[in-house]
Write a structure and sequence with these properties.
CATH topology of the largest domain: TIM Barrel
CATH class of the largest domain: Alpha Beta
Number of helices: 18
Structural class: alpha/beta
CATH architecture of the largest domain: Alpha-Beta Barrel
CATH superfamily of the largest domain: Dihydropteroate synthase-like
Largest sheet: 8 strands, parallel
Radius of gyration: 28 Å
Number of strands: 17
Strand content: 15-25%
Distance between the termini: 66 Å
Strand order of the largest sheet: 10-9-8-7-6-3-12-11
Shape: globular
Length: 449
Amino acid sequence: MALKGADILKKLPKTNCKECGFPTCFAFAMKIATGGAKPQDCPHMSAQSRAELEAELSPPIKLVTVGSGANALVIGEEEVMFRHEKTFFHEPGIAILLSDREAEGEIDQKLKKIVGFDFERIGVKLKVNLLALSHDSDEGGRYLALVRKVLETTDMALVLICRDTELLFSAAALCAGRKPLVYPISGQNLEAAVPRLKELDVVAGVCGKGLDEVANTASALREAGIEEMVLDSSPGNMEEAVRDNTLIRRSALKKGFRPLGYPTIAFPCFLYKDRLQEVLAAAACITKYAGIVVLSEPDEHLLLPLLVYRFNIYSDPRRPMTVEEKIYEIGGPGEDAPLLITTNYALDFFIVSGAIEEAGLPAYLCIKNTEGLGVLASWTSGKFNGEAIAEFFGKYGVEKTVKHRKLIIPGAARKLKEELEEDLPGWQIILGPHEASDIPKFLAEEWKQ
């Protein structure tokens, strides 16, 4: 819970010395409360008070980074229980399980699928974030070989799953530079794990049977100086996973209970053998409120809807979904290709571009920035009128893109046609169909004629 200015003032020396840049200690306290100043800006606060204040001001859910470089996964530091209250900030990572009990060919095939899976939605690449490497065989050497193979194949973030603590940290030492998540860390192996966690600077995957065990282990790690961890309460099914994740989130945000103030990890891959049940459990855990979700297979038919669902949940509800303003080339068009225009509202873009692809006729699609407003709303607000579109034509050199002078506009924008005939002299303005689903027929019949 956010500290109030009056609470912060209790930690300050109350000398009103102005050395912090504010006229009074109370003004300084209010600025800290809103994030405009930091405790260290006060030169006269005691070290103990500063440490206590910084601890109280730290986010209720710790920010945790798994992996390194461009493929690092950042999770945690969420502020609300429900997305509509503000937004969710750090989307959960999707991990695919690789077992050292699988045949080498099967592992190679999985890795090829995972590394090659790449889907773009509204300019954002949707992909698998982590590989979860599980020790299920009786051979430690086999597990280490799996770790080495993955390190040579990809630079993705890693989750190391191994019940043998010594073997777990031997594997972690191989990829310590990748900052893997090591799992499980529990009350049973805590004493042996703490020095290795500190030495290798990796993320602890805390495991316990229920919230009490998880909180106890997390508290012990906090006292030992371990900063980054991810929690698993070992639920037995989807219902228990949703319940525990919700209680963990609520305990951190509403009660300020620090031992549970960390992201969680969910293992639908271990809960269900049926793939559909597994992906449904994964979707539930993404909604409530897992930081990492581990799946058993890189099946694109199940992965893609899950990734799109995650994308939608973690988009900011305060801002409309938009695409970049530019001229999009669909199907490799030439200078005789049709030229269409619409707004940068994401739904407009995807419906129209999809219809053009369905038509099988290469075309140019001009996307005008309307700040996410649709056709009619952006026309009435002046963001998609004749003057704005003429300015777009000049900015992007549309006249040099095609040799004809024909522009197809949305059928709902009949009044826009009259404006464009004035603002784009020499251009023939063609009123397209009212429904995007009619674009393929329209292009096949009207444009070819």
